[in-house]
Specification:
alpha/beta, 4-stranded mixed β-sheet
Amino acid sequence: MIVTVTLNPALDLTYAVDALVPHDSHRVSDVVERPGGKGLNVARVLHALGEPVLATGLLGGTTGDRVARLLTADGVRSRFVRIAGESRRTVAVVDRADATGFWEPGPRVTPGEWSLFVAEFRELLGPATVVTLSGSLPPGVPIGAYASLIALAAAAGVPTVLDTSGPALLAGLRTAPSVAKPNIHELTGVLTRPLPGPQGLADAVRAVATGPVVVSRGSAGLVAITGDEMWECAPPAAIEGNPTGAGDACVAALARGLRDHTPWPDLLADAVALSAAAVAAPAAGAFDPEIYRHTRPTAALVGGTRARTHR
C-alpha cells in the first residue's frame, strides 16, 4: 500500500466567470470543489491507476470534514489526524483568459497535534510499501517535519518520495529520501551555486542532496540526478492543457516505480507519460488514460558511465 502524506490539505474551490476585473463584482457561472493539496492529488492519481493507496495528514473543522467526504466519494481511503484548527481553502477564479489563485495559509498545528500525527505515521509504516510526502507545511509544524518522517520511514525500510519547497525541501534533501522531486523553480530556490548547463545542474544538486533527485521542468520533461549518473526524458510532443497536477502525477509514477524497483529509464518514461496525461485532464488529481497509453518517451543517459537499475 502506498501512503500519501498531506500535512496542509485544502478544499479547492474553482469559480468560473466571464472576465476577471479587479475591484469589481462578479457573477459566478460555475463552482467546482474538490479535495486539494499535492498529496491528495497523488492519492487520487494512484487510485485511478488501480493502485492500493491510503491518504493521511492533518484535517480540521467543517472544511476538513468536507475534504474527507469528497475523498470518500472519489473512492480514496484515508486516515487523517484531526486538529482543532480549520483546514484551509484555495480559490481559483477562472475566466476565458487565465486563472487567478488565492491560497489560505492553513491552520496552526499545536505540538501535541504534531506528536499525534507522528505516532499515527509510525503505525502506517507497517503496511506501507512507499510513502509520498507532498506540499507545504502548515503553521506550527517544524521545518524539519518531512526530514523527521523520512528518517522514520528509512528506519522501517520504507522508501520515500519528497515533493515540497523552501526550507522544508532543503532539510529533506539532506535526509536522503529515496527520491526528491522538486520542480526547477523550487530547486533553484535552495541551491547554493548557479546552474550552467546539465553538468552545472548535477553538481549543484549533489552539493545539497544526499540521494536521487528528479527535477521537473514543465514541457521540457524530467532530469534525474542519481549517484554519478544523470538521465533526461521529455515528452515526444507538447501537450496543451492544465499543468497544475502534472507534478503530482509524476510523484505517483515515481512512488509506484520505487515499489516495483523499476529501472531509471523506464521509471522516468512512465513519469513523463503520466505527467503529460495529467496536463490533458481538466483538474489536478486526474489524467487522460488515452494520452497516458499513447505517450511513450525514451530516457537518455546524459551524464555518468554506468547504467543501473533503481533499487
